[in-house]
Design brief:
The protein has 335 residues and is an alpha/beta fold. The chain folds into two domains: 6-103 and 300-333, NAD(P)-binding Rossmann-like Domain (Rossmann fold, 3-Layer(aba) Sandwich); 109-290, NAD(P)-binding Rossmann-like Domain (Rossmann fold), CATH 3.40.50.720. Helices cover 33% and strands 14% of the residues. The chain has twelve helices and twelve strands. The protein has helices at 13-19, 22-31, 67-71, 93-96, 105-124, 127-137, 165-174, 190-195, 203-209, 229-234, 252-261, 303-317; strands at residues 6-10, 33-34, 55-58, 78-81, 100-103, 157-161, 180-184, 199-200, 212-215, 240-243, 265-268, 288-290. The chain has a seven-stranded parallel β-sheet, with helices on both faces. Strand 3, helix 3 (67-71) and strand 4 form a beta-alpha-beta unit. The longest helix is centred in the middle third of the chain and has 20 residues, at 105-124.
Length: 335
């Protein structure tokens, strides 16, 4: 049997307690030589073991791994990041050394996509508006065509901005519904969009034709405020804008102007700033549904990240292909 690779956990202890179950640790112990069940605060804490480490399992609380750190780990072959983005966390020296990097961003995409799917279906059904009407007036006004014109999901158009992990998963989920799906993503080919059940279009066409617009682009210098006053003006009256990505993708001032007017609806899990000031008008608007950045992994959902990463470590130790590798050339397009 091949020698099991020496492995160290580097993360905040609270993260370990929250994300990793006993069976996760047992699986790691079966396929690696786990130096300690307690996480190390940084590479320096590994002391004399540094020259033997082949696998690092990192997460929130792990310091940046720079070129100097890499020099202290001559045998390092894999960094399995028990979290999402590695951008800004890992130095380019990691890739220059040929160290394999994987992360759990695909695992965190699942609850975000689930939240988004629920938001889309509820928005088309006018659930939030009709909930307010019912609780205020306490009567059934079926068929509700006056209070909620154009209510229902059948035949509606959903626009997806960004075929990211989340955006792609949302499109897969939407394939089972009687909805028309448009996609704006400059990096995805039209044929690939069709495989997801979507039609690739320009941003202006998506905004003007969609009943629901869901934002899933990464926040990069070139995507900051990609939806501003001009773009918001293209959206049809009564449409719903959903944001589970990053608040700064949308010009917050321009968005507030449109929402205060009542022309658009919005379901916002992220805003800019992330916690709106107490004076923000969005807290009291009947056409806005706010949640405090909860679409991502919460509670038991966080353990899916460990399921993904422990499986990747197992694949690595058994010489199998890893499913969630992060490649250097992808970094400019990642959040």
């Amino acid at each position: 049997m091949a020698k099991k690779p020496p492995t160290a956990l580097i993360m905040h202890p609270v993260v370990l307690a929250e994300l990793m179950r006993e069976d996760h640790l047992q699986r790691l112990e079966r396929c690696t030589t786990l130096m300690s069940r307690e996480p190390f605060p940084d590479v320096t804490a590994l002391a004399d073991h540094r020259e033997h480490v082949e696998v690092l399992v990192t997460s929130w609380g792990c310091p940046r791994i720079d070129g100097e750190t890499i020099e202290e780990l001559p045998r390092l072959k894999l960094i399995a990041h028990l979290a999402g983005s590695v951008k800004g966390f890992l130095d380019d020296a990691v890739w220059r050394r040929g160290i394999i990097v994987c992360n759990a961003v695909a695992a965190n995409a699942v609850p975000v996509a689930e939240y988004t799917l629920a938001a889309i279906l509820f928005a088309n059904k006018k659930v939030f508006r009709l909930n307010q009407y019912y609780t205020q007036h306490r009567r059934n006004n079926a068929p509700w065509t006056t209070e909620a014109p154009d209510v229902g999901n059948y035949g509606k158009t959903v626009g997806i901005i960004g075929a990211s992990h989340v955006g792609s998963l949302v499109m897969r989920m939407l394939k089972t519904f009687d909805l028309r799906v448009l996609l704006y993503d400059p990096y995805m080919a039209p044929t690939a969009a069709r495989d997801f059940g979507a039609r690739k279009v320009g941003l202006s066409e998506l905004l003007s034709q969609s009943d629901i617009i869901s934002v899933h682009a990464p926040l990069l210098p070139e995507t900051r405020h990609m939806i501003g006053s001009r773009e918001l003006a293209l959206i049809r009256d009564g449409a719903t804008l959903i944001n589970t990505a990053r608040g700064a993708l949308i010009d917050q001032g321009a968005l507030e102007h449109q929402l205060v007017s009542g022309r658009l609806d919005a379901i916002l899990d992220t805003t800019d700033p992330e916690v709106l000031p107490a004076s923000s008008p969005l807290y009291g608007l009947p056409n806005v549904f706010l949640t405090p950045h909860i679409a991502g992994s919460l509670g038991k959902e966080t353990q899916r990240l460990s399921d993904f990463i422990v499986t990747e470590v197992e694949h690595f130790t058994h010489g199998k292909v890893l499913r969630h590798v992060v490649r250097r050339e992808q970094l400019p397009r990642l959040a």
